[in-house]
Design brief:
Length: 674
């Protein structure tokens, strides 16, 4: 009969007994404090509730108190002791790998192997046969690949990845135990697939590989009871009784064909004992051959020998025959006819769009197997098969969309034209705000727009009167600034504030003037340059001022006073860059239209070359000149002295000095024409 569980944990009850005992002159409520080292696990350490200190209230807890939270070990006489697998404290007994309490691992044996065969055909290939009663089953692919592991019971039931259907990783029940199927993350891990089960199994279990790419190797191991241990055969090429088209074969298939596979002795088992005398009653007999390793394209098959009784020829267990006399299997070719062409389908590409409806593609090739080699062939050889699709629609996720998250804000100005805004966000299909580029920018609602708050009130604004009179003596004026403004800054043009403009000047008088001479200046002229450095001038005259007015005086009358400047440099704004040019060159011709040139450059204010000048305003750097026709120079002394000078010209006598002088005009005209 089990002990009734206490309503409160045992350590909590032990600590609460000190609630009625004063500590340091005060009463506290105590609770267990378990954050101590393993050496203190059997002490009674209690913490004052609501305070940051704990106290060792007793050197040891009551016997039977658990050593710690979620532990099966208990405290006995202040020492932490655990119960053995025989439920006796301190016995120290643990189960061996065979599950025997205190055993020495002799009740079972470990069977292990490594399947490393090179395969060529896509489909199911048998790796190992696991007998009934197996425990601690572990089948693991050495490196991640596009191959898959599969489990089928001998009764033909698919446990995992059977019938060309790939199952998800998880827990699967079969042959009396539960299997854990693991397929590590395809991106972050390089580990391969695995099957794990505690066992024991209650019928024969066949392990297969669904081959798609070169085999990276599969390691398997399991434990069998020693009294009926069945050695798992190491995979050999002649044991691949699997057809890529028809799927995995089963033991029943072999029995129907009259072929049985005697399990060879694995490398990790001891040799069989010498045959007894009864072995002479049995011998090996050729019973047939294995299935062909390939359905086409040249495969192999091997002779199969069975143990029979010498007299009756009845089948007998293999261990009744002398294993040393068993003939070696003979290999012979089979199914040498060419394999039919097939469509080899590649992996799908990534979706063309990260969200919404996209397209993905894959490669589809017509291939044909020839003697353990698969080659690309013309697609016409696969015309007997329906061609798989090479493209397909896909959708990774629903696209994000624009959402307006707030109403329009008030207008930014109380009157006139201003702006208002609102919140616009790109929101995913689960409601999260994401980056704007995940939404269609062409469909983005505006988040800013102009707003008109109505006509602004306009009024006359003016400053205080100037403190000084414009004249040191006599009549002058005081001034102030007067502006027509709205009561708020606006981009609209101002309208008039009315005809009643406040005065901008008023008279003032600082008393009568004494006659004296002064320099008086006129206003500065306009700056000579619209931008950059320029110059400006003003008139400076010597005047005598009195109550009667002003009289112009000679300049020497004001020589004792500093004369104001009559010219100065000025600067209105920065040009940035403008065109400069040199003088025109001389004309290339003196008549009949020549041309002249000059150099034009774009320069900044500091005379550096720039490209920011407006090309449409560039001054011309070449122009025509002297368009008037050329007139021959008339020499009054050059004239014909004879009336028949045309005969001289025709006779080509102008080359002689005599005729040149006698017929000067005719010879000169002919020379200019040639």
């Amino acid at each position: 009969m089990a002990c009734p569980s206490p309503s409160r944990p045992i350590r909590e009850l032990q600590c609460s007994t000190f609630n009625t005992q004063p500590f340091m002159g005060r009463f506290y409520q105590w609770e267990p404090f378990n954050d101590v080292s393993s050496e203190q696990s059997c002490e009674l350490n209690c913490r004052a509730i609501g305070f940051r200190f704990y106290v060792r209230q007793a050197d040891r807890v009551i016997d039977g108190t658990p050593c710690g939270q979620n532990q099966t070990s208990v405290c006995v006489a202040g020492q932490c002791q655990s119960a053995g697998c025989d439920d006796l404290l301190g016995s120290g007994r643990v189960p061996d790998k065979c599950g025997v309490c205190g055993g020495d691992n002799s009740a079972c044996k470990l069977v292990s192997g490594l399947f490393q065969h090179s395969l060529t055909k896509v489909g199911y290939h048998k790796i190992v046969e696991i007998p009934p009663g197996a425990t601690k089953i572990n089948v693991t692919e050495m490196v991640k690949s596009r191959n898959y592991l599969a489990l089928l019971s001998r009764s033909g039931r698919s446990i995992i990845n059977g019938n060309w259907a790939i199952d998800r990783p998880g827990m699967y029940e079969g042959v009396g135990t539960m299997f854990t199927y693991r397929r590590p993350n395809e991106i972050s891990s390089t580990a391969g697939e695995s099957f794990l089960a505690e066992g024991p199994t209650n019928e024969i279990l066949d392990v297969f590989m669904i081959y798609q790419q070169p085999n990276p190797g599969v390691r398997y191991e399991f434990i069998m009871p020693s009294e009926n241990a069945v050695d798992a055969p190491h995979p050999k090429q002649n044991q691949l009784d699997v057809n890529a088209v028809n799927g995995p074969s089963t033991p029943e298939d072999h029995e129907r064909s009259g072929v049985r596979h005697p399990p060879p002795v694995p490398d990790n088992q001891l040799p069989a004992a010498p045959p007894t005398t009864r072995a002479r009653e049995y011998n090996w007999k050729l019973s047939g051959t294995t299935d062909c390793s390939a359905s086409c394209g040249r495969g192999s098959r091997f002779s199969v020998f069975v143990c029979v009784h010498r007299g009756t020829h009845a089948l007998a267990p293999s261990d009744l025959c002398d294993s040393s006399t068993k003939p070696s299997p003979q290999e012979e070719p089979c199914n040498v006819q060419p394999c039919p062409a097939f469509w080899d389908i590649g992996e799908w590409s990534e979706c063309s769009k990260t969200c919404g409806l996209g397209v993905q593609h894959r490669q589809v090739l017509c291939r044909q197997a020839y003697t353990n080699h698969t080659l690309n062939v013309h697609s016409s050889r696969c015309r007997h098969l329906e061609r798989p699709e090479t493209s397909s629609s896909c959708q990774m996720k629903i696209c994000s969309e624009w959402q307006i998250r707030s109403d329009w804000s008030p207008c930014s100005v109380p009157c006139g034209v201003g702006q208002r805004s609102r919140e616009v966000h790109c929101v995913s299909n689960v409601g999260d705000i994401v980056a704007d580029d995940e939404c269609n920018m062409k469909l983005r609602p505006s988040d800013v727009e102009n707003c008109d708050a109505g006509v602004c009130t306009k009024s006359w604004f003016f400053s205080d009167w100037s403190a000084q009179c414009s004249a040191d003596c006599g009549a002058g004026v005081r001034t102030r600034s007067v502006q027509c403004l709205t009561n708020h800054i606006s981009s609209l043009p101002l309208e008039r504030c009315g005809a009643q403009r406040p005065p901008e000047a008023q008279p003032c008088n600082n008393g009568p003037c004494e006659s004296r001479t002064e320099w008086f200046t006129g206003p500065w002229s306009q700056c000579s340059a619209e931008c950059g450095s320029g110059g400006q001038q003003r008139a400076v005259v010597c005047l005598m001022r009195s109550d009667e007015g002003f009289v112009v005086m000679p300049a020497y009358e004001c020589s004792s006073l500093d004369k104001p400047l009559s010219q100065q440099s000025c600067f209105i704004k920065t040009c940035g860059a403008k065109w400069f040019h040199t003088d025109w060159s001389a004309c290339s011709k003196t008549c009949e239209t020549g041309y002249r040139v000059r150099e034009v450059r774009c320069l900044t204010d500091d005379m550096m070359t720039s490209e920011r000048c407006d090309e449409t305003l560039k001054p011309p750097d070449k122009e025509e000149c002297h368009p008037e026709p050329c007139l021959p120079l008339i020499d009054e002394k050059c004239r014909d002295k004879y009336f028949n000078c045309n005969v001289v010209v025709q006779a080509r006598l102008c080359v002689y000095d005599y005729y040149q002088m006698a017929c000067c005009a005719s010879c000169t005209r002919v020379a200019s024409e040639t």
